[in-house]
Amino acid sequence: MRTRFASTLLATVLGSAGLLSLAACGSGSDTGGSAAPASAAGKVAVVASTDVYGSIASAVGGDLVEVSSLIDSPNADPHEYESTPADAATVAKAALVVVNGGGYDDFASRLVESSGTKATVIDAVQLSGLPGAPEAGHAGASSPPDPDGHAHGEFNEHVWYRLPAVRTVADEIAKDLGAADPANAATYTANAQRFGTDLDGLQQKVDAIKAAHDGQRIAVTEPVPLYLTEAAGLQNATPEEFSEAVEEGTDPAAAVLASALQVVEGPDPVKALVANSQTESPSTQKIEDAAKAEGVPLVEVSETLPDGVDSYVAWQGAQLDALAGALNGAA
């Protein structure tokens, strides 16, 4: 079982200031109903499966929406989260529900199906347009080669680490909020455009890493950050069997662990180890200890926002700054 604990990235962030494929759902879909539900304050009610998507919805909706994130703690695991009757009631009253999809937050899929909600549903994986996305979340599904010809195993559902996918989600949120609240449609569109400009700033950080470190090798404990590190031109040297075992909460075989240690301890060690700060196991601890002993910089990333942080852009900006700093120091 994966052990969750609070992210140690908080100080850095503050310092740097189913739905898998619902039959009627391609990207965003209306599950029925006419008038958009509103909160008691008269705001459009939006529900997100995690605070990552909640923060994006808040950036687009501003003070015109009331956003409820079903998971808003770094100690909760979306893979294992058990929804509550209160969650079902919240979803039932929503005008818009935003989920990751792809099998990541299945609890949200079940809530939508069981709550009788009339909400429009946005599925980030389905919106991403990535190879394998239409099949993602189905048992045994794997992704075909990407546009660069690289074949992959299981689909990487962590699409909030892919900036173009996040932009698409924000634009879809603006469109669907505008449909629910036509009087303020222009405001939602303008907010999404501003958010897109902020994403451009993150992309500049990615491009700067690529310009300085294109082709350099890194290791990861899980596939969580791979969309971002690949966009930065970094090569993942971790044995796939190791990172998949960690993600699934199982112990990798001894030979697999030895291979993973070799990319850190071997004659050509990686330039950085990027670790999921919300997952701890004996295997990940061994890799992190080996990295420390060999002087390989450790960069922590997370799946949800650290405590006290509510901005997607600030969160990702801090992580990119940490990655760039580690690579610059290792160069």
UniProtKB/TrEMBL annotation:
Residues 132-153 are annotated as: Disordered. The keyword rRNA-binding does not apply. InterPro entries: Bact_metal-bind_prot9 (IPR050492), ZnuA-like (IPR006127). The keyword Oxidoreductase does not apply. Residues 1-23 form the signal peptide. It comes from Pseudonocardia yuanmonensis. Pfam families: ZnuA. Keywords: Metal-binding, Signal, Transport. It is found in: Cell envelope. Its main location: other. This is Zinc ABC transporter substrate-binding protein.
